[in-house]
Amino acid sequence: MPDAKNDNIFLVGLMGAGKTTIGRLLARKLGKRFVDSDHEIEARTGASIPWIFEIEGEASFRRREADMIRELTGQHGIVLATGGGAVLDPANRKLLAERGTVIYLRAGINSILQRTAHDRNRPLLQTADPRKKLEELLAQREPLYREVADLVIDTGRPNVQSMVGTILEQMAACVKERPGTAMNQTKRINLDVALGSRSYPIVIGSAVLDDAGLVARHLGSGKAAIVTNATIAPLYLERVAAPIRAAGHEVIEIVLPDGEQYKTWESLNLIFDALLANKCDRKTTLVALGGGVIGDMTGFAAATYMRGVPFVQVPTTLLAQVDSSVGGKTGINHPLGKNMIGAFYQPRAVLADIGTLDTLPSRELSAGLAEVIKHGAILDAGFFDWIEQNIDKLVARDPDALAHAIARSCEIKAEVVRKDERESGLRAVLNFGHTFGHAIEAGLGYGNWLHGEAVGCGMVMAADLSQRLGYIDSAAVERVRALVKAAGLPVVAPDLGAERWIELMEVDKKNEGGQIKFILLKPLGSPCVTSVARETLLETLAACTA
Amino acid sequence: MPDAKNDNIFLVGLMGAGKTTIGRLLARKLGKRFVDSDHEIEARTGASIPWIFEIEGEASFRRREADMIRELTGQHGIVLATGGGAVLDPANRKLLAERGTVIYLRAGINSILQRTAHDRNRPLLQTADPRKKLEELLAQREPLYREVADLVIDTGRPNVQSMVGTILEQMAACVKERPGTAMNQTKRINLDVALGSRSYPIVIGSAVLDDAGLVARHLGSGKAAIVTNATIAPLYLERVAAPIRAAGHEVIEIVLPDGEQYKTWESLNLIFDALLANKCDRKTTLVALGGGVIGDMTGFAAATYMRGVPFVQVPTTLLAQVDSSVGGKTGINHPLGKNMIGAFYQPRAVLADIGTLDTLPSRELSAGLAEVIKHGAILDAGFFDWIEQNIDKLVARDPDALAHAIARSCEIKAEVVRKDERESGLRAVLNFGHTFGHAIEAGLGYGNWLHGEAVGCGMVMAADLSQRLGYIDSAAVERVRALVKAAGLPVVAPDLGAERWIELMEVDKKNEGGQIKFILLKPLGSPCVTSVARETLLETLAACTA
User: Fold this and answer.
1) Domains of chain B with CATH codes
2) What is the average per-residue pLDDT within A229-252?
3) Which of A364, B94, B116, B119 could form a disulfide with B16 if both were Cys (CB 3.0 to 4.6 A apart)?
């Protein structure tokens, strides 16, 4: 008898996420039997789900559902679509987790509203404001879906066939992974950055690096040029290169010096030299293996080598996994300003292996947490709360906490990028803390403070400025300061002198017409872009520097 | 009484080009009376145009039309839409040219076919193959439309309002220009590069540089950074800068050393240094004033400064006007290959002042003619014939011949770019002669042979190779060789040694999987992309080098 965990597949997720459609196709592909829990309840009772809700009430339906889950999970070789609320019952969650591979089909609220617009068979949506109801449901159930899931699949893709293909690949990969470490090794989260023809997947999970099929799928037919740095190369280069080579690709290895101070034209030119020396053509795919510096430089090299070749991001730092690898910002520094030379150029995929964070220095882990905090502070007050409650776990590298922090950060960022790929408006809010942060980095010389450290301190300064403009109260400033500090980041800025501070901030790319643009909090959880009076700015500089 | 030339506007062009729609709006905007020649004929005869063709024959219709043209052009203050064939009669052309400002509304065959698909009122299109008929009509009439026109307007724009706006601006500009030089100073040709949201106009004419309104229209609200070289600056920089400054823009002048050998990262960095030193923000527009090297470098700087700012091409060499300023290829050279680092990045406009060719050294004029010949050789045998017939005029800088050569080259190139912006297929044909040419340039060191000289010689080699594969006969090779020679270009390649030749050609960007890709003629006037046997290539190298 096969292991029950592999023999059954249980689909969980909100109503309208596609559990039935995907489940049927998945069952056909795997030669399993498809069962829909709600349909089974209707067949047994002879009543429709709305009728049961109407006459018996939700509690009674949940009892019937629990009985059905117990019965169906006891079977073998099925693909089971569960009702959206099945995970509310701890007993159900336990049975699902023990008796099958659980796949969370995750859908955005907009797409659910579209799919269920004319469906009268969803009792919980028969309200005046279905969007609000869905948001409540998602807030309540999302942690439960994630808790029980072995695999999270974003159902943003337009095509059911390709989504089922992804599920099958991911399941195959999960089976190969090593069990028995602290983290649930089979957990893998799939997200999509929806940019039309430039859309690409983000895969977050463990042992992603060893998954030859996953990496090779994004390589095309040509050579692979892996760009990394001298610190990362001994740790991970061969682990990435070997399976790609085994898949039949010629691999060129390009190892650059490590550090923000090498994010220069000279390093970029080392990439070009190696590509040309190895006769790399336009079918060559660049693979960025490393942190934000490697990702930004490799992306810019890909954007400009022969006027553009494909590239894949394999981020190995928390900062790169939660921020810089997603969204297509690439570039190098100029002595007069950070990231002043670059391009918007999207990768073909972002493959984030959480296992690489095990070797990350604490200082860099903290630097990555700065961007996690940023995503909560500007766009998701609930996520900010969650970070506050879990900051100790995050600093202690609890894998489940890290996985959630990375996934939620990528989701927030992907949504912003989808709405404003080329930073003509909204996307600027992702620079919260960065106007001050860039000035700190440039003022001290790149590489003295890590980017994330500068951003962490910059967020405290931006919060201080927000309070001076009356946008938030002092308690909110203190929450930001305390969280940045708890993440292991500096909260007091270097004293560069007010004139130098302002001069450095004036070269920021967001500026227009000589005015410095700040991203501020109005209130915590919501961004606001504005210029400020010089006196107010001087007050913040005086209050936050030492 | 106002000057008759300014008081009347006559619209000429093929059926379906929009003469009636545009004419009505233009008349309303100018407070003139709109008259349609065909409608007047129908009103006078009481018979429809198809009926007149059917019963009386075309010759009779043309007589009625000539009478009507004579009568209507004698009036004042009208906008007259003429029939598509009105220009066939020399008497009509004389009347139109003398008695009003003639605007040629030029439309592509595809758009005419779309617009006339369901129109039974076009007697000449009632044939089995309307496309062929239209092509014949266009070939016959295009030179006549151009001969009579003061202004050529491409009707590719989706919006009649914006097209009429362009016509009004262009007419205002024509009035301001100085009369009395060799070229018809009022002639201005407008084309469109149709790339959806990245579409942009090409304006070809005299005194474009002095047209403050024209240049400023493409600048946006910010600063203008004019990038040019030490040769061009004393000739034209102030002429371009003064009207922009007068229009209220801050102007930054960036003067680079002149020559292909300076198409490097170092020169590019001089641009970045100046932009940053002058606190240029994302609203700054870069203006490329110069030849291909300045255009390519400025375009690449625009593509990558702060991840992208707008730019305008103001080409001052024939090569830049007929080729490099159109299509968005930007970049710099690498010691291991020409244009290896770059981006596809479209300008906001291409403004080509034919007057700048007066100061162009003969060697550079010849270099530009190489690309003109290329456009005929690969995509328009009729244009190739025309170049053969007019090569002496072109070398002697006859302004009308140059205007036609530039306009037709831009049209051919714009059409190729429209179909394949990022060189995934078709666009590669524009590299005819370039595979050999790039090897000559790299082999001798950049700057020894001009790019156009290398391409000219490269075309002779590609023709030789085409013959060896049986694609063209020796007479066609001789025609290419003779035309390249008559243009003042080299036809014998330097002897780099066969191994070095092949090594240099192997780094070409078009190559895939190690195979050198050649663009060949099959036959003259049509391109063919292929790899060739090493022996055949060696034969061509032996035959064409000395």
Assistant:
1) 4-185 (3.40.50.300), 208-360 (3.40.50.1970), 414-544 (1.20.1090.10)
2) 92
3) B116
